[in-house]
Amino acid sequence: KALIATDFCCVDTVTLRRLHVLFFIEVGSRRVHLGGITSNPTGAWATQAARNFLMTVDGQFRFVIHDGAGQYSPAFDNVFTGAGTTPITTPPRAPMANAYAERWVRTLRHELLDRTLIWNERQLCALLGDYIGHYNCHRPHRGLDQHAPDDDGNVTAIGAGRTIQRRTTCAEADLTHLARPVERRQGFEHG
To answer: In terms of CB atoms within 10 Å, which end of the chain has fewer, N or C?
Structure first.
């Protein structure tokens, strides 16, 4: 638990209203936390969201990475400094400096937002709560050896003692009832 990345994600609703989603991602475990949703992200709002986030997590982080957007005010940095975390501001126009946060935004868009019509903040909050729960508890991650961030490693055996029969080709399946005789056409030959 040494590093946490944070960023905003913009979501446009069907009613042409733009909502801003603040999230935090623990880089080591890939665990995501929803900081809040607002239509007007100000420095004071982001600072309060940072306070709320620090009250809900257990453990201490060494660094927090964020971009140089105006929402990340000096008060935002002071909240983390007071908790013993060093804030790091990424250089302008350098999305790879906060790659974990940017990748999570891409994943969120691909798996949820591109497939869903968002009507309002309430619906977005409910969808994000469900998706983050899925992301943290069930979604496998390559960087975690195909485990979820909250995965405890215990695997439940289904039908213990039974062997699993796998078919490598369709020919091994019993499909004889689907076979029909093939008729040959007269007068047409390949030669």
So the answer is: C
